[in-house]
Amino acid sequence: MGVIDDRWRRVELVPMDPHCSDISIALYRAEEADGPVGLVHTYSTTSEARARVGSLARALQVLGGLEPVGEQPGCVRFVCRTWHALAAKRLFLEAAKHNPVQPLEARALDVPDTRTAQTIRIEPLGAGRYAVRADGATDEVPSRAPAIAAALAKLAELELAGDEVVVFPCGHEHDALVALMLTRAQNLRAVLREEEMKASRGVLVAPSAQQ
Amino acid sequence: MTMTETIAPMTSRERVLAALRRESVDRTPVVNPTSVATVELMDMVDARFPEANREPELMARLAATGHTELGFDSVMPVFSIIQESSALGCKIQWEQKDNWPTVKMGEPIYETPDDIHVPDDLLERPDTQCVLEAIRILRRELGEEVAIIGKTMGPWSQAYHCFGVEPFLLLSLDDPDETKLILQRFKEATIAFGQAQFEAGADAVTLPDHATGDLVSGEYYRRYLQELHHEFAERIPGPIILHICGKTVDRMDSIAQTGMAAFHYDSKNEPAESMAVVDGRISLVGNINNPETLFAKGPAEVKQEVWKNLEAGVQMVGPECAIPLQTPIENLRAIPEAVREWHAAGNRTPTTAA
Lengths: 211, 354
Fold this sequence. Notes:
By secondary structure, chain A is an alpha+beta fold. Helix content of chain A is 32%, strand content 23%. The termini of chain B are close together.
């Protein structure tokens, strides 16, 4: 595949895809007449690369609730026809981690908390609003809901409406996306650390700065 | 030549060579004295790290993308800074496709100047041979169209690799004579590898010598390196592009006196101030920021930095150093686009005629 045309801007890159011969594969974004669209693209010319574009685009649809656009393989968009920049980056990275030979299904809106015995539950309130609930909170172990809501807001650039409600600025439902982010929101620090390590890899430093 | 004279369209190679001599050019050349390899370019031509650092055909194929895919006026096959160190016997971590090979500087191979042994067959060793063969392939494949830039590491950088950064820097504080002895003993390797690359077909060589702005002062540069760099300019038979990272404006006057063709300068230095300091005695090349702009921003911001350099009259523009391997291709392509747009708007630098 050659250089894609000038209107596309790279959103996120996986430099070595463990599920496809370590090819690099990326999500690009362009502004179209009816709103922003994303494109899964690789410069790899291997025979399996084209199939991987398709499987990754499918993963974005299932895990993030994106919809396909036109006939171009790998082209997707948010159903709200806006663009959630941080959420798109993180969705792409999570989708790339999914092993294509495993079943692909949207994540649940409730998960056991990794730090307490509570169950974290997301309750859709309509118009892009989601309440975060923590079942099983006690006087001794206070609700994790505010912390999870704050982490969701940070991970996906959501607005906070009170301590336990997050809001997509577009005002549309994004159930699959918020469910996907929920699993990562439980350990925000690990997400940020992973991103920091990713950003520093492949950067050549002068010998004086090397370990 | 006056500003009103017209210059016939030049090939990329002619443009780069003229800019290295500070002669008139038809437009400002886009030059990469260091690597512009990315993981996406590696996939595009199926030439990946680490193999593309060790196999000449892959090295040449990946380097060619700098011209064929990015539209630069030069190609530069020596992506890493460890080829000679590997040939000297340093332990190398070759890494994977998405990371740079590095010298294991925690396991230095020398402790005293007497340990230094530059082998007679340095240029026949696999990792130096790879570079020489890649240059020959590029010259054969690209003909006279594109400037081919090689790389030979300076003695200060070699000392870091072979002695370790901290021991060598401490030595430079404690024992200037021994430090100078070390640099003298490494210099023949720098010269020999540079000469061999010109014989293989290189048009210029980059000479990184990491007396970087953060660790080494301008006064140190004058004490330890200026004379050596002058000697390199005299003995290496072709244009040399000195590369030192960091804020180096405090030593640019000294660098400008070495006789080297160009200085590859970092974005920590202001283009206009740097041009004023070197005052036409050496060409400048660079200084598009890597980590913040090329890696993390978009074509619009890249173009702003290119234009800032053009407005200052910088002779050649390009990235400030080896670019991060995940740099977006569209940002790299924005550099030659910005140059063309700037000239198409009727702008001129002192060396670009109408």
